[in-house]
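>> Question from a student workshop board

For tomorrow's exercise we were told to take the sequence and the ligand below, predict the bound structure, and bring the output to class. My setup keeps failing. Could a helper post the expected result so I can at least see what it should look like? The ligand is flavin-adenine dinucleotide.
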Amino acid sequence: MPPMLDASNTAQTDLHGGRSPWGRGFRPPRNLPLSQSIKTDVLVVGGGITGSLAAQHLAARGVDVTVVDREQPGLGSTAASTAMLQWEIDCTLGDLTEFYGFDRAAQLYRRSVAAVQGLAGLVDGLGFDCVFRPRSTLYISAGEAGPSALRSEHLLRERAGLPGLLLDHADLLSRFGIDRAAAIFSPGSADVDPLLLSWGLLRDAQARGAHLIDALATAYHDAPGAVTVETDGPFVIEARHVILATGYVMPDFVRSEIHRTASSWAIATVPQAPGTLWSGGELIWEASEVYNYVRTTADGRIIIGGEDDDTVDPAARDEKMPEKSEKLVESLVKLWPAANPAIDFSWSGAFGETDDGLPLIGAVPGMPRIFAAYGYGGNGITFSFMASRILAELCAGHREDWFDAFAIDRPSPAG
Ligand SMILES: Cc1cc2nc3c(=O)[nH]c(=O)nc-3n(C[C@H](O)[C@H](O)[C@H](O)COP(=O)(O)OP(=O)(O)OC[C@H]3O[C@@H](n4cnc5c(N)ncnc54)[C@H](O)[C@@H]3O)c2cc1C
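>> Workshop helper replied:
Here is what the output should look like for this input. Compare the format with yours to find the bug.
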């Protein structure tokens, strides 16, 4: 089994180190202790962005939903996210086509486009402020992924009906001031303050009757008719279904051969001088296998993340923060020489990866009433949105064939 974080012994402080710029001046929604054993229709374990999206959607559908988090909701990996809400998946359409064939790969990409649109519609409809901004992306050549690799990817995307424009070096330099050999420019993504989004969704769920409880789920007993969940207190929660949304800390009974835990690092600069950022504040990410990713913030900062490696131990990850920050600054200055690279925020986080860039969403094998949503890489939040819709359908007893693409026990596509 690939290296994982220990489910019985991982706190939010193990999921990230340092300080990110999110949620400043705001507080998490109010949670209550568990003062008696309760029954609920759906219990969501974990109050990060995955649990928040699931809880809000279920509550909006009129489901009796309870969320438990053992710490402050949102302050796990969600607080460490750079929150680029992309429909482009960590695995290119080309690679996904090699794994699963063009039709299935193209359908997954189109569903990802629809997920970002769905998220935008949700935020718009609910009307709370989470600094959600529609953005285009620039997928820029890097390492071995040069113009011809980007051209092949672009042609496949065109064939799949995905939006985008191939830019050569001259176009990229004249339109965006970026000196790389080629890029794919794509509309339809977004960025956000992930903590404000998560907390806003939880508050909306609470307003619709959802309960937010401060408790640690310690054991799950899946019996016909209901799951009984033990907690760190004397009380239990009985639920018709359980949704596990515990982030990169997966209980031992959720087993996946294709999921690994790694680490990523990020910095946010000081606010840049007016007029010195690239024109549309596009989300920029590199086409190489290990890539850096860059966005801006509403107050004019540049965030750059990446330098990923396979560190799992939280202390070792945090020790690397100064060295990784320095490398991120070097990459930023190469990409955008006009940047003022002085750092205001620097942080690190656990990061999940799967062999095919797709998450793990669905029923836990052998536990038909327990569903899980895990395995998120660079577009984790887009997939959390998709998970919330899939899992609500599964809780209602509706299954569709395409859900199988995310099956928790799927084999590695590499064989
Ligand atoms: C540096 C970095 C950059 C990233 N950039 C992006 C990006 O640009 N775009 C993107 O889409 N994604 C990005 N991601 C990924 C994204 O952050 C994650 O996919 C997302 O935050 C996962 O949210 P979650 O709710 O599943 O997990 P979490 O936010 O970790 O929430 C899980 C919650 O479960 C609680 N919990 C755990 N176990 C229990 C238990 N037994 N009982 C009760 N509560 C429990 C925890 O306290 C925690 O609050 C990035 C991640 C990192 C680290």
